[in-house]
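Deliverable D2.4 — example input (structure tokens):
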């Protein structure tokens, strides 16, 4: 099946309860430390020493995220495209699945960007909150011809140079080409395919190590933020969380059920009654991969989807179909730009949309994976990666909700593909 080949004896999708508890404690301690630091005179030795330690820990955490982003993104995108290409002989099932994945992701990203532009939760704050961000973004902001050049020409640079420089767009293009080539001749390049799978497993293992350090890193970043930010920043963050929650739930409660009703002829009440268990599992675990067994059981027993469809669509969707993640990352990039006082051009917003969709493909189905792939979305338009700290206090709540919508999208796709591909449900 087209899913990640995680070894069962070291399942990276299972996050120990202590990790979540430590993340919450680290965030709370960081905010308290930052508020206390703000009361000290800036000229004092204690303020200088504490600021240096906090800056070092925060920088180490951001550097670790950037380090693991490159192999994780490359291996995950290459593996996902390889799985798609290897199933090209499935004809209408493969084509319909890919088109529906792309369509719902585009709808989700458009919804997220539109809501961020409409409500502008980060607008009106002091522009020095993210010092230097506006200049960096302006330096990287292309006009329409420059955008096309960046998209079509610069994306084809030397892949080894892209790996060393962490150039996101060329890196993704190289992963797409490698995945398609290996998927086209899987027997000939079986060793390379195994290497990609093992690189993904290795990257997920390192992500697990980074997440163990995350309470310190998150605490340090939040301490730095709390020491310099005002209550208006946290008010903007609450407004952003409300906007993202509302748009994510709109996508899951209205758009996806409407598509299922129109294209698969399944009424919303029957659809929601059947999928409630996978949705609750995803909400509780924040992991589409951990929810996979429950999701497959629901497809077979409750929705009566042809196993030839569900066994292909759902595991593949766990890797490449993440509407909630794409919506969140697109809206978050615009929120960060608003905080920095940056007016992203239309071409930059198109680039954000594309990067958010690709980041959703590259996001593993594990808790807080969006924190890693968010790096590439911000870097694509020159926004500061350090701005991730602003989003961390609300990430766990939003992660649970967007994971629920991700899983829902896999089941919706299975129903639509079954009908459009002419597959009758089992009798």
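Example output (designed residues):
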């Amino acid at each position: 099946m087209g899913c990640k080949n995680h070894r069962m004896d070291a399942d990276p999708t299972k996050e120990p309860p202590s990790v979540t508890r430590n993340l919450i404690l680290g965030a709370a301690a960081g905010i308290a430390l930052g508020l206390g630091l703000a009361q000290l005179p800036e000229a004092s030795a204690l303020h200088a020493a504490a600021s240096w330690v906090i800056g070092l820990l925060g920088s180490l955490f951001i550097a670790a995220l950037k380090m693991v982003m490159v192999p994780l993104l490359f291996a995950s995108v290459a593996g996902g495209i390889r799985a798609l290409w290897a199933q090209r002989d499935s004809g209408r099932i493969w084509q319909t699945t890919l088109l529906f994945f792309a369509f719902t992701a585009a709808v989700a990203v458009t919804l997220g960007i539109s809501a961020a532009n409409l409500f502008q939760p980060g607008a009106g704050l002091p522009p020095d909150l993210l010092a230097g961000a506006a200049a960096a973004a302006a330096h990287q902001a292309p006009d329409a011809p420059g955008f096309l050049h960046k998209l079509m020409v610069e994306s084809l640079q030397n892949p080894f140079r892209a790996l060393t420089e962490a150039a996101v767009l060329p890196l993704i293009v190289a992963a797409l080409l490698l995945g398609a080539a290996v998927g086209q001749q899987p027997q000939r390049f079986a060793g390379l395919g195994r290497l990609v799978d093992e690189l993904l497993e290795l990257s997920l293992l390192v992500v697990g190590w980074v997440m163990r350090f995350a309470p310190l890193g998150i605490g340090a970043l939040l301490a730095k933020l709390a020491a310099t930010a005002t209550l208006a920043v946290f008010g903007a963050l609450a407004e952003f969380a409300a906007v993202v929650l509302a748009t994510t739930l709109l996508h899951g409660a209205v758009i996806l059920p409407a598509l299922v009703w129109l294209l698969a002829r399944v009424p919303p009440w029957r659809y929601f009654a059947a999928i409630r268990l996978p949705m609750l599992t995803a909400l509780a675990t924040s992991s589409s991969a951990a929810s996979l067994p429950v999701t497959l059981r629901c497809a077979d027993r409750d929705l009566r989807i042809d196993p030839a469809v569900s066994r292909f669509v759902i595991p593949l969707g766990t890797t490449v179909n993440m509407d909630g993640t794409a919506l969140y990352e697109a809206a978050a990039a615009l929120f960060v730009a608003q905080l920095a006082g940056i007016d992203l051009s239309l071409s930059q917003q198109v680039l954000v949309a594309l990067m958010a969709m690709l980041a959703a493909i590259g996001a593993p189905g594990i808790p807080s994976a969006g924190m890693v792939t968010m790096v590439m979305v911000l870097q694509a338009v020159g926004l500061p990666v350090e701005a991730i700290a602003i989003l961390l206090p609300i990430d766990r709540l939003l992660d649970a909700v967007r994971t629920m919508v991700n899983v829902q999208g896999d089941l919706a796709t299975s129903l639509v593909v079954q009908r459009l591909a002419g597959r009758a449900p089992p009798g």
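Residues 13-420 form a domain with the Proton glutamate symport protein fold (CATH 1.10.3860).
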